[in-house]
Amino acid sequence: MEQSQFAQYLAVLMLLVLAIAAPFGMILVSTLVGKRGKRSRTKDTAYECGMIPVGEGNPRMSVKFHLVAMLFILFDIEVVFLYPWAVIYKAMLTDVLHPEYRNMILGSMITFLAILFAGYIYAVKKKAFDWKQ
Question: Which of 114, 108, 119, 111 is nearest to 74 (CA)?
């Protein structure tokens, strides 16, 4: 028995209607049935492990803190680039892959590490890692 194209998508349409109606129905029922109690200032304060909260909820962080975080991510990602290079270079040393490119790949990695080290020295001299000042 052949079904019409609409009948094939009837289950999907029912699921869509249920997905839209369920949240609105829950909000409506909780509003109508829920208790409306009087709220005090103490009731509305943030709960922090049984202690009364003191100070701001979100203290401002120094720009230096974010600079250190970005530098950490930068140097961390650069170190990740060393792993695939080491695997390929090891294969080149065992003559599995093109041994004629061995010196070029070693030179490019030494250049990469030299630029990375120069950036690190620059950051140290600028005291970029000293974020508590």
Answer: 119
